[in-house]
Amino acid sequence: MKSEDIRKKFLEFFANRGHAIVPSSSLIPDDPSVLLTTAGMQQFKRYYTGELDPMKDFGSYNTASIQKSFRTSDIDEVGDESHLTFFEMLGNFSFGGYFKEKAVEYGREFIEDVMGLKIDYVTVFDPTKVPAGDWRKGVPRDDESRAIWEKLGVKDIRAEGTEVFWGPTGAEGPCGPTTEIYVNGVEVWNIVFNEFYCDKNRKLAPLKTPGVDTGMGLERLAMVAQNVPTIFETDLFNPLISLISGKLPMRVRRIISDHIRGIAFLVSDGVRPSNKDAGYMLRRLMRRVIAYAYRDNIGSPPQDILRLVVDQYRKFPDYRNLNSDIVIKVFSEEYEGYKEKVGPEIKATEKIFSEYKAQGKKLIPPAVIFGLHQSAGVTFDISSDIAEELGVEVDRKAFEQDLDRHKKISRAGGEKKFGGHGLILNTGELKAGSEEELKKVTRLHTATHLLNQALRDVLGKDVRQMGSDITVERTRFDFTFPRKMTADEVKKVEKIVNEKIEENLPVGFKEMPKTEAEATGALHFFKSKYPERVKIYYVGKSLEDAWSKEFCGGPHVTRIGEIGKFRIIKEEASSAGVRRIRAIVG
Ligand code: GLY
Prior knowledge:
The protein has three domains: 3-233, Bira Bifunctional Protein, Domain 2 (BirA Bifunctional Protein, domain 2); 238-406, no CATH class; 431-585, 2-Layer Sandwich (Threonyl-tRNA Synthetase, Chain A, domain 2). It is α+β, with helices and mostly antiparallel strands. Strand 7 (173-183) and strand 8 form a beta hairpin. The chain has helices at residues 3-15, 45-48, 54-58, 100-114, 143-151, 218-225, 238-243, 250-268, 277-295, 302-313, 324-358, 366-376, 380-390, 396-418, 435-459, 487-503, 514-519, and strands at residues 20-21, 62-70, 86-94, 121-125, 157-160, 165-166, 173-183, 186-198, 204-217, 425-426, 431-432, 465-470, 475-480, 507-513, 533-539, 548-551, 566-575, 578-585.
């Protein structure tokens, strides 16, 4: 049975049984507590709670839909036989129209009589399978569903715990026990009985009117109906997979086809690549595809595969918003920007991983993975793909912990200085809340590099930077030196910096492996842990004959003439053997 026939039969079946057919909602949900739409029930949450009236909106207590869905949590599994990020979900829903008996009967009738498939077994909820202390432990055993299945002649009924309890989606919402249908060993249909409202603290209260919410992945149903071993061999994926080079490992072909579909649908629903939330998810999908396209010959330009997806789905009324011009434009912009920047980084990543492997190390240190993500734009997914190919390992948990920690530090820094409003830059050392502030702190930042070098010129090479802090008003610079500077020394330092500024030298940077960078003699913190690849910012025409060079993430002015006049306003003790200078510019 073709997937198009499955769609038709599903909607007809439920329309003939008094269900209003409701269009798919957007992948960007109304519910702000979730990033993306993960299930058909999401657009109906407020009908379950009684806030909205289904009779008024749909003319029925029962609805059915084919909902586009996106599950970010499954991204690591994509590449196996049945996991996807983007997929379509067939679902029927009731908000007080029917409950367990009808829902189970419909399930059996559609699978066996309409689809002509054989149910292997079903599952029902049993709290004795739920771990002690779990919030679902007190939910009663679902004997009613078991009895209905028995009456319908299903022999193999298996008791399960938390696997057969749905929800809530997001922070709170309707939830309840489920019963699942398995065909050819694959779970195809999840029938949820929303009996409770689950609050933010995982406390359950009975819903006034219990409801039904079901979800059946179209791709999986097509797989069992078409009797193929993986979803990628169904008619939904065949055309896509065949555009991707057969020389690539099957896992990679699957990842590319999954991500391309996700990109087409996310962009068409208005998501744009960014560093936050849904935009970041889209960026991850895009960058992974771009990384593959850059490293390997994937067979067709990704743009052609995107166009195919749009052509494949645009014919369905729910997906008229798919627009290949927009999808390709948004993708190509990300492609151009990223290819230039990250192409070399990908090669470097391969080299770094190979070196670890040659040293007999299996796990790439999490700090390296985070460094690649943070300073080289190599996302975790790409690192993980390269690791898989080279036979080394990466630790996702550690990466996520690093990312969380970094976000918390940035946020805390921002809130302290700007009350949490509109921080556009926070490197720890520099913070700016607006474009104008950004310009000012950037000038102070470059001036700080000049100060560092001038201090070494005047006081000797034992001067070492101990820390710096730059606000819109001033730079504060701590360095090792055993005594108070004389007034003459302070003047000399100031003079050197201002002479350099007058020369209006250019500022450049170069990126390279850490060991290579250390060999250039560029200044850097002794104890600091740098990533495997670092940037060196230098003042002068080239790195080789630069007067000032330091390991640094930027930002800096392009020519030091932009800094304006430099003035030291204070020299004082910071702690034993450490002096502190405050300076201003402009
Ligand atoms: N809401 C039921 C499911 O997505 O499986």
